[in-house]
Amino acid sequence: MRLSDDELQRFDDAGYLFLPGVFSAEEAALLKHEAEVVYAMERKEVWRETSGAARTAFAAHLYNEGFRRL
């Protein structure tokens, strides 16, 4: 997938892109499940709030097949 000049500019301005329709409902559900799997892991890449709730996970593509394929 190549981004258009407009998409690149929006990314530069906002730091993210919203791309509706890129993934099917089934693909989105699979990635949601894989995110839950990653957030349940006790890894140094999974940063947690003081409450223990996962805040973010770095480099999930290195240790999760779903995100590797993404």
Question: Would you mind describing this structure in some detail?
Answer:
- It is built from 3 helices and 2 strands.
- By secondary structure, it is mainly alpha-helical.
- Strands 1-2 form a two-stranded antiparallel ribbon.
- Strand 1 (46-48) and strand 2 form a beta hairpin.
- It starts with a helix and ends with a helix.
- The model has no long low-confidence stretch (mean pLDDT 95).
List the defining traits of the structure above.
70 residues, 10% strand, single chain
Mean pLDDT level: 95
Distance between the termini: 12 Å
Number of helices: 3
Helix content: 40-55%
| β-sheet strand percentage | 5-15%
**How many β-strand runs?**
2
Q: Tell me, what's the shape?
A: globular
Note the run of SSEs as H and E.
HHEEH
- What is the rounded Rg? 15 Å
Q: Low-confidence parts, pLDDT < 50 over ≥5 residues?
A: none
Q: What would you call the quaternary organization? A: single chain
Main sheet? Answer: 2 strands, antiparallel
**Major sheet strand order:** 1-2
Based on secondary structure, the structural category is mainly alpha
Topology of helices and strands:
Layout: H1 5-14, H2 25-40, E1 46-48, E2 54-57, H3 65-69
Structure described in brief:
Helix content is 44%, strand content 10%. With 70 residues, the protein is mainly alpha-helical.
